[in-house]
């Protein structure tokens, strides 16, 4: 979490600054003549913001009485945290289609060229990038879905570990998220994955599922068998017996030398017997967006797993 801590604090600080500033501006300004520029403090030369012309080129929407937003995803401005009201100007960042009160985002963009949501939401845990549709447990809701919540376990001597908790199957360490393919590689943190597979891996209550399962037959053998395709499972084996698994199809059953325990559907990973597992997710479907360098976004914050793809500049948003 060290990686995420500093930017979050930085952004929280800026958000507080901007909120105070916006309130001040609301109290001070003339209705038709917002004097934001004159009250803006001198900028630190190391801070890279956008010039006024670039900011002005980003599309704005004047909210109608019905307060219909450019795309319905949230009715609260993430910078000042107040609800959008009729007749307010909303500015959309073209690259990602996140939007904010113009008065809020303009101040931000003068200090920092990157979208605050994109910046705060993409974070590192160890070497793992965590971003939409995932979010870390201490990140705001608008960063990702509750079902995709991860926690970052701080380690003293090694890299921080990203943990995914299943309602029934327990904790798994995430060691790779493939955002383009929508699969993740996990390892079981609490011991013996083959034991969990034998008991029945219960992934219900989570959007993740096996993408490629194969049936293995588990055997209990009194001596170690050396047939091709036989995988020894150390965490289930004992002093004088060996638990092994072999693909159910295409291999000769070991019943002459071993006792069959069960047939088990294994979510395939090259090292499943050493607690590795590959799972995937179908919803939200960001595959097209990821492969087209888009920014995948909520369709509606807090409702369903639909996502949309933010990218190209939308024209004619002023209405
Ligand atoms: Zn605002
Ligand atoms: Zn953004």
Strand order in the sheet with the most strands: 6-7-8-9-10-16-11
The overall strand count is 18
User: How far apart lie the N and C ends?
Assistant: 43 Å
Instruction: Give the amount of beta strand, in percent.
Output: 25-35%
Overall helicity: 10-25%
Count of discrete domains: 2
Biggest sheet: strands, sense, closure? Answer: 7 strands, mixed
Please identify the structural class as seen in this structure.
alpha+beta
Can you tell me the residue ranges where pLDDT is under 50 for at least 5 consecutive residues?
1-6, 26-43, 312-319
Average pLDDT number: 81
Tally of helical segments? 7
Q: Give every kind of bound small molecule, once each.
A: zinc ion
Radius of gyration: 26 Å
Indicate the overall shape: elongated
| H/E element order | HHHEEEHHEEEEEEEHEEEEEEHEE
EC number: 2.3.2.27
Protein name: RING-type E3 ubiquitin transferase
InterPro entries: ATL20-22-like, WAK_GUB, Znf_RING, Znf_RING/FYVE/PHD
Family: Belongs to the RING-type zinc finger family. ATL subfamily.
């Amino acid at each position: 979490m060290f990686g995420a801590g500093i930017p979050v604090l930085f952004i929280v600080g800026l958000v507080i600054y901007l909120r105070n500033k916006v309130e001040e501006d609301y109290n001070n300004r003339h209705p038709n003549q917002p004097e934001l520029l004159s009250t803006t403090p001198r900028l630190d030369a190391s801070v890279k913001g956008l010039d006024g012309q670039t900011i002005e080129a980003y599309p704005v929407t004047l909210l109608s009485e019905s307060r219909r937003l450019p795309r319905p995803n949230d009715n609260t401005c993430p910078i000042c945290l107040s609800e959008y009201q009729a007749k307010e100007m909303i500015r959309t960042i073209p690259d990602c289609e996140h939007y904010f009160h113009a008065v809020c985002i303009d101040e931000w963009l003068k200090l920092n060229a990157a979208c605050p949501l994109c910046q705060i939401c993409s974070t590192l845990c160890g070497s793992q990038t965590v971003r939409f549709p995932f979010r870390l447990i201490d990140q705001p809701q608008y960063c990702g879905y509750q079902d995709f919540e991860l926690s970052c376990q701080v380690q003293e001597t090694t890299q921080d570990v990203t943990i995914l908790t299943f309602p029934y199957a327990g904790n798994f360490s995430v060691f790779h998220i493939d955002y383009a393919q929508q699969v993740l590689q996990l390892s079981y943190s609490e011991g013996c994955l083959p034991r969990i597979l034998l008991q029945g891996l219960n992934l219900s209550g989570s959007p993740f599922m096996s993408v490629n399962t194969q049936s293995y037959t588990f055997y209990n053998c009194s001596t170690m068998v050396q047939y091709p395709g036989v995988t020894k499972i150390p965490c289930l084996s004992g002093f004088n017996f060996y638990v092994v698994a072999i693909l159910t199809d295409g291999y000769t059953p070991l019943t002459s030398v071993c006792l069959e325990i069960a047939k088990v559907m294994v979510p395939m990973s090259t090292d499943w017997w050493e607690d590795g597992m590959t799972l995937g997710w179908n919803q939200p479907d960001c595959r097209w967006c990821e492969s087209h360098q888009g920014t995948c976004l909520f369709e509606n914050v807090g409702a369903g797993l639909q996502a949309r793809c933010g990218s190209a500049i939308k024209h004619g948003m002023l209405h």
